[in-house]
Amino acid sequence: MRVAIYPGSFDPVTNGHLDIITRGSKVFDKLIVGVLVNIDKVGLFSIEERVELIKRVTSHLENVEVVSFNGLLVDLAKKNNARVILKGLRAVSDFEYEFQMALMNSQLDAEVETLFMTTSAANSFLSSSSVKQVAKFGGDIKGLVPDEIIDDVIKKIKG
Ligand code: ADP
User: Fold this and answer.
1) Which residues does substrate bind (predicted)?
2) What would the 3-class secondary structure string for 126-138 be?
């Protein structure tokens, strides 16, 4: 069984993430979305909320699982028998950081491969932080995040 892990902060999940999840779910037998617990960074949504939002927007994808994790990504991969770390690439600017992470992860566990999927052109400008900026100043986030979570994002930003 080909299992892949798709890690990230997902604060909140965007249409760019959902696109990678949807396409990834067709390539692998099982895709595990891993929500990274970052103790140094306070997010907009709690980890539990992020997991719930991703579960909500991926409920139609039977082979997608959503978990939260802390610690090393390669340990999460090993625990789930995943040989692949799936990453999305938006722009050349993503590359340097992702390249470094991929090399570090292969240093930690040579059995795990990092594979990159290029963004769909329509989502290339999208990031969770830009969505939060737009929502904060009252801009329309329709088309940026899945429809099912628009109200959650607006409500959360308004506090
Ligand atoms: P961000 O906060 O930058 O939106 P995350 O850390 O939650 O991103 O991203 C998780 C993964 O999703 C990373 O591999 C990132 O490169 C990828 N990703 C984020 N946004 C997009 C997008 N619009 N298109 C493709 N991949 C994306």
Assistant:
1) 9, 41, 73, 87
2) CCHHHHHHHHHCC
Tell me the C-alpha to C-alpha distance, in Å, between residue 53 and each of 14, 66, 68, 129, 145. 10, 10, 12, 16, 11
What pLDDT, on the 0 to 100 scale, is given for residue 32? 98
Answer yes or no: is 134 within a domain.
no
* Residue 17 a catalytic site member: yes
Structure tokens at 135: 């929502």
Question: Binding site: which residues?
Answer: 9-10, 17, 41, 73, 87-90, 98, 123-129
Predicted TM-score (pTM) of the model is 0.94
Distance 123 CA to ligand 1 centre (A): 10
